[in-house]
Every structure is written in structure tokens, then in C-alpha cells.
Amino acid sequence: MRERTNQGLIDFLKASPSPFHATHSIARQLDAAGFRRLDERDAWHLEAGQRYYATRNDSSIIAFRVGRRKLLDAGIRLVGAHTDSPCLRVKPQPELQRQGFLQLGVEVYGGALLAPWFDRDLSLAGRVTFRRDGKVESQLIDFRDPIACIPNLAIHLNREANQGWAINAQNELPPILAQVPGEERADFRALLAEQLSLEHGLVADAVLDYELSFYDTQSAAVIGLNRDFIAGARLDNLLSCYAGLQALLTADDEESCMLVCTDHEEVGSCSACGADGPFLEQVLARLIPDGEERVRVTQRSLLISADNAHGVHPNYADKHDGNHGPKLNAGPVIKVNSNQRYATSSETAGFFRQLCLENEVPVQSFVVRSDLGCGSTIGPITASRLGVRTLDIGVPTFAMHSIRELAGSHDLSHLLKVLGAFFACRELG
């Protein structure tokens, strides 16, 4: 069972090199499970016992089951995660031709660890907007093959590299794609038009714009002497998206359940499709049109914000509070911060601890060292917008925001089990 669950995650990561692809991958599984796609431009007619989903910007998705129990009696069980990860995004006019090489200018998206991007086999994926037969259309593309690399400077030419080297994102991160002979000028948009033709059989009159990310082509894998770990890109936070999706797919139709996977968390969530935007509020308004009833249902509901946590690294154990060092493969982590960087309260933490106890799922806690700053999640953002009781949890991870992260191979099953129990839980406290 654990091996099948981990392989499902690996397949999901491979199919999801960008937030657009992650949303498409989730939608495809929802379609196969009989969920009905809703268009935000149409009127919605929602029925108890039915399953629905809606997307926004092709990079955020909200899926839900309308339970047979009345919302005013039962509330809604919400799980939130995010589809984006730190990466390198291609600039609008990216072509660089230096020393006979074609490179692309990139912008750093989110708080990426930059050093691991060097010497990796990179590909490119995302969304392309183009004109065809006089109409503007968009399509997802994925080159799949390794088409680029950011080679390190040899140690002979940079003797201080191992003493700490500040990476200049403007000058040192443009990936190399090819050698260009003579004075020939490269046209990146022509390359995208060719990819549209190869991948989708589309003949574009002109490529108008794009949102494209470089990614590591090395597949995620279960590794370690005893296969204790999962290594891969975008574990933060596609692991949580995948666990929430599988829990929703296996939930019954008794309780109302919702999975919220939004874009732009890594850059603050402030967008039309981010957690600090109106997407979730507008979906809830259409599910519960009456304003007073919606407030009453919200106060009977609970949100679990699932976003990876920092496991205690054996080489850097002093970066953790001595009493709050989450271990890999020891279960999901309740994240607490008195300054509301996490939205956990004693009541929501208590509810989750009891849920884990009842379902024999190990559980841990994390508080950042008092002399270090604390990251945040969609939890406080969603809680402040909706007024919903919220809990922040996550699977412990090493190398968060690296091009290749590491998690425990048992923890996905732990998370999936407790989220499944949450969606089935009759009383939310």
C-alpha cells in the first residue's frame, strides 16, 4: 500500500512540472472519479451528494463534495495546499547570445535555494498564449527532454567557491540551451511555436506571451539503504496537494469536503487565484448564497492548511528548538507560532492530535527557534479572510525550496490516512 501511494506521488510530480500542469493533473483525476467541472462564467446548480470542481487561471483548483448532511449541521471539512514551488521563470525577452551560446534570461520565482540549480539537466514547461486563425488561445507545453543546463564555474577559476559564494541571479543563472553559429539570431518564440506543433499539432500564427518555468528532469524516487526517503522536486507543496486529492477521491458523500489548491503561495498569495484573493470566498458564496447562513456554516467548519514542515537535519540540529525537532517518518507536524505566522490554536491542534490518536497516526509539533524568523503558509491568510478555524500541519522535509527536496517515505501514507479520517469526521469540535 505504501509503495503504491509513493509511486502515485512520483507519477503526479512527473506530470506536474508547473502549477498549470499540477492543476491539469488534479483535474484529470477528478474527471476520472466523476467530478463535474464548473465554469465560473456559468450559473451553478449544486446538489447534495454530488461532486464538483472549478479552476482559475489554469493554476488553482477547488474541488468539493456536497455532503448529504445539511451544511448548517455539519459544516465543511477543508484542506488547503498550494500548487507553486520556487523555480526559475523565463523573462519576456529572454534571448541572450554570448560567446557563441544561446542562453535565456530568467527571474527567480519565490525563495529558491539557488546553488542546487547548477549542473542539473533542465527542461521547460508552463503555459503559452498564441494567436491561431485570428483567435487568442492558450495551451500547456512541456519540453520533457533535458534542453538546458547552468554549468558551475570550475573550482580552478573560483578558489573561494567553497568558502561561501554569493550567486548573482542576473549574471550567473541564465541557462545554456545551445551553441549558435556565426551571427545567427535565435528566436525563442519561434521555438515555442515549434513545440506547440510537435506536442499538440497546433499551428500558431504568432506566440504572444508565456509563463514558463525551468525544472529538473531527474525523476523523483524512493531512495536510501532501507528505502526510507522520497527525493524529488516540488515536494513543497505538491506532496500535500496529492495527499489532499487522494483523501477527497476516497471520501464518501455523507460529509461536505473541499480541497483548495492555490497558486502564488511562494510569493505571498496576493493574486486573483491565490489564497489572499477571492477565489475560495466566491466558491463558498455560490455554494451557500445566503450571507448569514454562510457565516454560520463557516463557524461550524475547519480548515487544515497542509504545507511541508522543517525536519531536524542531523548536520544542522542546532537550527531547531531542542524540544521541537520533527523527525522524518514520524508523522505529520503541527506547526505553531505565537505571532500568527501559522494559524494553529490550542483547540485546532487538540482536535488534530485526537484525530491522529484515534486513527493510530503518529504526530509531532514544530516551533521555530526564538532567535530565528518564521515562514508562513496559506493558513493565516485563509483564516483572516474567512474567519474559519484553522490548523497548520505538514510533512517534515529536508532541503525545502531546493531543486530536489527530501521527505520520509512513510509520511505520505501517514498524512493521507489522517486527511481521509478528517474528511470522514462527523464532529469538528
From TrEMBL:
Zn(2+) binds at residues 82, 156, 401. Its EC number is 3.4.11.-. The keyword Cytoplasm does not apply. GO terms for biological process: proteolysis. Its cofactor is Zn(2+). GO terms for molecular function: aminopeptidase activity; metallopeptidase activity; zinc ion binding. InterPro entries: M18_aminopeptidase_2, Peptidase_M18, Peptidase_M18_dom2. Keywords: Aminopeptidase, Hydrolase, Metal-binding, Metalloprotease, Protease, Zinc. GO terms for cellular component: cytoplasm. Belongs to the peptidase M18 family. HAMAP family: Aminopeptidase_M18_2 (MF_00467). PANTHER family: ASPARTYL AMINOPEPTIDASE. This is Probable M18 family aminopeptidase 2. The lineage of its organism: Bacteria, Pseudomonadati, Pseudomonadota, Gammaproteobacteria, Pseudomonadales.
